[in-house]
C-alpha cells in the first residue's frame, strides 16, 4: 500500500545510519537529492544527519567516511531513519541495534533501508506485512532466509512507514519521488536536471535483467528467449525446451531466482518494456502493445492497469504533468 502524497510531503528531517562497509554511493545519492532540493527551491526545507552506532565516523566499503557523524541516540526528532548497509551487513548488525530500531518504529518514525540495510530491518522484524526491495545481488539469500516477507525485484518500495531501496544510484530516484510530493513534479524535474537525469525511474520498475546474473545457464537461455521474442506468443513448454529443462524445473528455477513464475515474469518484462516505450518514444499505444506481445489493445490496457494502477495513455500524461 503506497502512502499518500501528503504523507511523503511531511518527511523533512532525514537520518542515515551508516553501518560498517556501507555503500557510500547509495548514501551520497540520497543526501545529494535533499541538498539540491534546498538549492533549487531556495529554502532549507530538508535537513539530514549522518549517524553511526557510537557517533564515530564509519568506513564505507570504499574506505572513505562521512563527517560530521552523530550517534544513533541522536535519531530522536527525525522523520525518517535509513539503515545504510553494504558488504557483509550481518557482521555490522547487533541485538542492540535491532532493539533501538524497534523502539523508533513504535514511536512512529518512518524506518527505511538503503542497499543491504533491508537485511537489518528484516532481522528486527520490521518488514512483516510490508513489501520491500533490496539490491539484486542479495535477493536470493534474503528470500530464502525470510520467506514470510514480500521481497520484490523492484528499484525501491515505499510502503506506508517503510521505505526500502536497492542502492547504487537508485536512492536518487527514490528521494526525488519523496521530494516531488512536497515541491511538486515541475520542481522535481528541475532537481533531476541538475543531476543530468534523462528520465525518472519509478520504484516499481524492475531491476535490470543483467542484475539477475549470475544465473544458471539454462535459466539464462530462458530469459534471453523471453527478451528476444518479447513481441511473440511464448508458451512455458516452448521456453522450457529452449532452456533444456522440463516445465517443472523451469518453474522451480524462476521461483528461486525471481520469486515469480515464468508466465508472471514474462508478463512483467513485457509491461516494463511497454512503459519504457511510452515514456521514451512517440509510438501509439496500440503499436506499443503489439511490440510487447499483447494481442489486442484491450488486453494490453487491462494488463497495464492491473500492474501499475492506471491506463497506458495516462503514463504520458503523468510524465507531462
UniProtKB/TrEMBL annotation:
<dbReference type="Pfam" id="PF01965">
    <property type="entry name" value="DJ-1_PfpI"/>
</dbReference>
<dbReference type="Pfam" id="PF12833">
    <property type="entry name" value="HTH_18"/>
</dbReference>
<keyword id="KW-0238">DNA-binding</keyword>
<feature type="domain" description="HTH araC/xylS-type">
    <location>
        <begin position="220"/>
        <end position="318"/>
    </location>
</feature>
<dbReference type="GO" id="GO:0003700">
    <property type="term" value="F:DNA-binding transcription factor activity"/>
</dbReference>
<keyword id="KW-0804">Transcription</keyword>
<dbReference type="InterPro" id="IPR020449">
    <property type="entry name" value="Tscrpt_reg_AraC-type_HTH"/>
</dbReference>
<dbReference type="InterPro" id="IPR018062">
    <property type="entry name" value="HTH_AraC-typ_CS"/>
</dbReference>
<dbReference type="InterPro" id="IPR009057">
    <property type="entry name" value="Homeodomain-like_sf"/>
</dbReference>
<dbReference type="InterPro" id="IPR052158">
    <property type="entry name" value="INH-QAR"/>
</dbReference>
<keyword id="KW-0805">Transcription regulation</keyword>
<dbReference type="InterPro" id="IPR002818">
    <property type="entry name" value="DJ-1/PfpI"/>
</dbReference>
<protein>
    <submittedName>
        <fullName>GlxA family transcriptional regulator</fullName>
    </submittedName>
</protein>
<dbReference type="InterPro" id="IPR018060">
    <property type="entry name" value="HTH_AraC"/>
</dbReference>
<dbReference type="GO" id="GO:0043565">
    <property type="term" value="F:sequence-specific DNA binding"/>
</dbReference>
<dbReference type="InterPro" id="IPR029062">
    <property type="entry name" value="Class_I_gatase-like"/>
</dbReference>
Amino acid at each position: 500500500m503506497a502512502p499518500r502524497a501528503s504523507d511523503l510531503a511531511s518527511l523533512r528531517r532525514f537520518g542515515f545510519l551508516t553501518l560498517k562497509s556501507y555503500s557510500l554511493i547509495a548514501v551520497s545519492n540520497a543526501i545529494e537529492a535533499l541538498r539540491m532540493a534546498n538549492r533549487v527551491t531556495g529554502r532549507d526545507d530538508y535537513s539530514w544527519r549522518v549517524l553511526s552506532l557510537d557517533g564515530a565516523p564509519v568506513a564505507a566499503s570504499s574506505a572513505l567516511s562521512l563527517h560530521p557523524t552523530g550517534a544513533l541516540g541522536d535519531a530522536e526528532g527525525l522523520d525518517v531513519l535509513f539503515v545504510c548497509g553494504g558488504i557483509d551487513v550481518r557482521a555490522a548488525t547487533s541485538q542492540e541495534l535491532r532493539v533501538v530500531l524497534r523502539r523508533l518504529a513504535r514511536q512512529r518514525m518512518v524506518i527505511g533501508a538503503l542497499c543491504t540495510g533491508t537485511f537489518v530491518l528484516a532481522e528486527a522484524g520490521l518488514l512483516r506485512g510490508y513489501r520491500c526491495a533490496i539490491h539484486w545481488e542479495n535477493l536470493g539469500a534474503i528470500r530464502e532466509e525470510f520467506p514470510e516477507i514480500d521481497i520484490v525485484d523492484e528499484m525501491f518500495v515505499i510502503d506506508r512507514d517503510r521505505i526500502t531501496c536497492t542502492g547504487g544510484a537508485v536512492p536518487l530516484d527514490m528521494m526525488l519521488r519523496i521530494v516531488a510530493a512536497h515541491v511538486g513534479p515541475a520542481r522535481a524535474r528541475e532537481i533531476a536536471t541538475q543531476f543530468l537525469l534523462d528520465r525518472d525511474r519509478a520504484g516499481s520498475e524492475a531491476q535490470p535483467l543483467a542484475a539477475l546474473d549470475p544465473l544458471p545457464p539454462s535459466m539464462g537461455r530462458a530469459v534471453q528467449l523471453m527478451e528476444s521474442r518479447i513481441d511473440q506468443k511464448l508458451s512455458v513448454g516452448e521456453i522450457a525446451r529452449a532452456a533444456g529443462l522440463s516445465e517443472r524445473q523451469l518453474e522451480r528455477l524462476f521461483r528461486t531466482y525471481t520469486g515469480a513464475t515464468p508466465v508472471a515474469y514474462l508478463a512483467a518484462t513485457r509491461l516494463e518494456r511497454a512503459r519504457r516505450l511510452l515514456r521514451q518514444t512517440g509510438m501509439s499505444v496500440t503499436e506499443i502493445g503489439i511490440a510487447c506481445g499483447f494481442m489486442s489493445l484491450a488486453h494490453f490496457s487491462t494488463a497495464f492497469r492491473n500492474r501499475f494502477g492506471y491506463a497506458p495513455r495516462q503514463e504520458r500524461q503523468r510524465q507531462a504533468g
